[in-house]
Structures are given as structure tokens and as C-alpha cells.
Design goal:
The chain has 185 residues and is mostly helical. It has two domains: 1-72, no CATH class; 73-146, Arc Repressor Mutant, subunit A (Orthogonal Bundle). The protein has eight helices and three strands, in the order H-H-H-H-E-H-H-E-E-H-H. The protein has helices at 3-12, 28-38, 42-69, 76-87, 95-102, 106-118, 140-158, 165-181; strands at 92-94, 122-126, 134-138. The chain has a three-stranded antiparallel beta sheet. Strand 2 (122-126) and strand 3 form a beta hairpin. Helix 2 (28-38) runs antiparallel to helix 3 (42-69), helix 3 (42-69) packs across helix 7 and helix 5 packs across helix 6 (106-118). The longest helix is centred in the first third of the chain and has 28 residues, at 42-69.
Length: 185
């Protein structure tokens, strides 16, 4: 990569440019793909462009989600915990189950639950059937925040994914195959 293209490419990857645009008159990922080919890495060029596009799309979508949730004082990771509890039959789950269903490390679950507990959105107690396990329960405040956050995400992000319905379905299908192939489920 030449220095100018590299600097532009790196700068274009910042999250700050997600909605307003980067001001570039070219696609930096397409340019990087061309440079891969120029270097003789043809076999990897399409894969690099696909993976880099996926990672950039993740940045864009995460920035939209976090901007929507920020006024509510919750991150997406914490929102996921709230919703998992909200959908559970009893409004509570063992910490181990939360980690398994969200597919995150136990430390991440502990951190999210700590913050949610500090905010009065969940409580933590010893599991009644297994004293070694911790049970996390949604509080009324947590339930109310989960509902407000879901309403905001639905109207500001999920109902407007900046893709047509056919593209949304195709994207979900492709990503499902990628996840399945990686052993995600």
C-alpha cells in the first residue's frame, strides 16, 4: 500500500465517520483490494475485502446501536443481558447460562452484571438449587429500561438497517452460514 492510501484507508476505518461519511470519493476497501492484487495476493484479495467490509460494517452498526443506547445509560453488552433476562420465564438466569447464551467469557458476564447491579437493574443471589452458582434477576427498573431500550433500538436501528428487505434476508443467510461454519452453533 502506498503511504497516502494507507493513511486514508486507516483514517476511513474510524467509527466517527459512520453516519456523516468519511468525505472520501472512493471506497477504501475496494482500493485495498486492488492493492492486494497489485502485490500478487490475488487469492486473498476477495477474502480480505469481505472480512474488512464485515469488520467495518460491524463498526458502523455498533456505533449506531451505542449512540441509541447511550442516552439510556446502557451499553449493548448490558442491554443483551437485560433482554436475555427479560425473555426468560422467571426473569432470572444463572450467570453460567447468561455467558453460554450470549457466547461470551465469564469475566465479561461478571463485568456486565456488576454494572447492571450497581445501577439497580438486576440483583444477584445464590442459586437456590446450587449454592455454587449465582442467579441474576431482572428488577422492575431493569425490565422498564429493557423495554425503553428495545423501543428505541427498534425504531432507530432495527427497523431502518439501511438495507432493503431482500438484502437483510440475504445478509442474515450469509452470516448464519459463516457462523455455522465457524462452529458458533
Amino acid at each position: 500500500m502506498d503511504v497516502n492510501a494507507s493513511a486514508t484507508y486507516d483514517g476511513a476505518m474510524s467509527v466517527e465517520t459512520t453516519r456523516a461519511g468519511s468525505g472520501l470519493d472512493f471506497d477504501p476497501i475496494a482500493r485495498a483490494r486492488e492493492q492486494w492484487v497489485e502485490q500478487g495476493w490475488d487469492a486473498a484479495a476477495d477474502g480480505m475485502a469481505a472480512i474488512t467490509s464485515l469488520m467495518r460494517a460491524h463498526q458502523i452498526v455498533l456505533a449506531r446501536v451505542e449512540a441509541t443506547l447511550k442516552p439510556l445509560g446502557v451499553t449493548f453488552a448490558r442491554y443483551e443481558v437485560l433482554m436475555l433476562l427479560w425473555f426468560s420465564k422467571r426473569g432470572s438466569l444463572p450467570m453460567k447460562v447468561i455467558g453460554s447464551r450470549l457466547q461470551v467469557h465469564p469475566t465479561s458476564v461478571t463485568n456486565a452484571v456488576d454494572r447492571l447491579e450497581d445501577a439497580g437493574l438486576v440483583t444477584r443471589s445464590t442459586h437456590p438449587d446450587d449454592r455454587r452458582a449465582m442467579l441474576v434477576a431482572l428488577t422492575p427498573s431493569g425490565r422498564e429500561l429493557a423495554e425503553r431500550a428495545t423501543k428505541a433500538l427498534n425504531s432507530e436501528v432495527f427497523e431502518q438497517p439501511d438495507l432493503g428487505a431482500r438484502d437483510v434476508h440475504a445478509l442474515v443467510d450469509v452470516l448464519t452460514r459463516l457462523r455455522r461454519g465457524a462452529g458458533d452453533f
